[in-house]
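tl;dr need the bound structure. longer version: we got a ligand (copper (II) ion) that a collaborator sent over and nobodys looked at where it sits. i said id run it. heres the input, straight from their email, havent touched it
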Amino acid sequence: MKPRIHHRTLQRWVAATLLAAFAPAFAQVVVQDAWVRGTVAQQRASGAFMRITSAKGGKLVAVSSPVAGVAEVHEMAMEGNTMRMRAIAALELPAGKTVELKSGGYHVMLMDLKRRLDGGDTVPLTLVIEGNDGKRETIEVKAKVRALGADAHGGMKHLSAALAPSARSAPAWRPARRPARTARCPPGSRVGRR
Ligand SMILES: [Cu+2]
């Protein structure tokens, strides 16, 4: 009898250990509906969007992609009366809550694009997510390219969507205004062309 009980105990211990070790890898972080805005020739930047859900909570601390020399996590924030975007060190992922990266909100900025991104293409993205326990997990995502009215403004058309509807018809994207936005970006990031 004794060996059998011992065996069952061992089985349970092994099962519990396996669950603890592997369950998080399967379900800890789920990324859905990842997509990248298509670009036109000479365009050097674009945005990537998705929904991220972390079961245990954590934060998105880094992104990279073979199509971009630089990838950053950006937020939109009001500066005075103007909506601007800027890089953030980490995007909080509250436990069990889906965080949406979307036009006009948080997004992944892909800069120094190495090629044109055509509709239907697939762009690999690597997300680094740090759990609340400090452990980092790498997630590979295949983002579909959507050719949504890509324009020549460095893939930042999503900015205009964040402005008042009337601003869409206003000349919010006059070239003269672009350097000011570019200048607001943190050192090291190169948004748009210089
Ligand atoms: Cu951005």
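gonna send this back to them w/ a short note. Strands lie at 29-37, 46-54, 58-64, 68-79, 82-87, 91-93, 98-101, 107-113, 122-131, 136-146.
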